[in-house]
Design goal:
By secondary structure, the chain is mainly alpha-helical. About 45% of the residues lie in helices and about 5% in strands.
C-alpha cells in the first residue's frame, strides 16, 4: 500500500472495512433466529496507520476492561475488528438480539458508503489523468 498516494490507500482501507462489515451483517441476518446469538459489527478502520509511511506514528489506545466496566456492559472485541453490536434495539426472550430492520438499515448504509468511496476513487483517477494531460473525462 505504500506505493499508492495516501488518498488511494485510505479509500482501499475503507472499502475493505465496508466489505468486512457487509459480511458480518450478513452473518447477523443468517443467525437472526439462532438462540442466544449476539449481533456483531465491525470497528472503524484505524486511519492513523496511513500516516506510518510518512514517519508519523499514531498508536491506537489500548483499553483493558475492568470488572466494573464489564458490569456496566462493556465487552472485549471479538477479534480482527469484529465487536459486539452496541446499537441493538431489542433482545428476544431467547437471548438473540438481532433485529432484521436494524441490520437491513446498516446494510443500506454500507451500500451508500461503498458508492461514495467508489465515486471518490473515480474523481481522484480523473484528476490524476487531467494532471498527466490524458484527459479526465472517462
Amino acid at each position: 500500500m505504500s506505493d499508492m498516494p495516501s488518498i488511494f490507500s485510505a479509500i482501499q482501507l475503507r472499502m475493505q472495512n465496508l466489505s468486512q462489515r457487509q459480511q458480518v451483517i450478513a452473518q447477523n441476518l443468517a443467525n437472526s433466529e439462532t438462540s442466544g446469538y449476539k449481533a456483531r459489527d465491525v470497528s472503524e478502520p484505524n486511519f492513523g496507520d496511513l500516516l506510518g509511511s510518512s514517519g508519523v506514528v499514531v498508536s491506537k489506545p489500548q483499553v483493558q476492561l475492568t470488572g466494573a466496566m464489564k458490569s456496566l456492559g462493556a465487552v472485549q472485541p471479538i477479534g480482527s475488528g469484529i465487536v459486539f453490536d452496541k446499537d441493538v434495539s431489542e433482545t428476544k426472550p431467547d437471548g438473540n438480539n438481532v433485529t432484521l430492520e436494524d441490520q437491513l438499515l446498516k446494510m443500506g448504509k454500507v451500500q451508500a458508503d461503498f458508492s461514495a468511496m467508489t465515486n471518490i476513487y473515480r474523481k481522484q483517477l480523473s484528476m490524476l489523468k487531467t494532471a498527466l494531460g490524458k484527459g479526465g473525462n472517462g
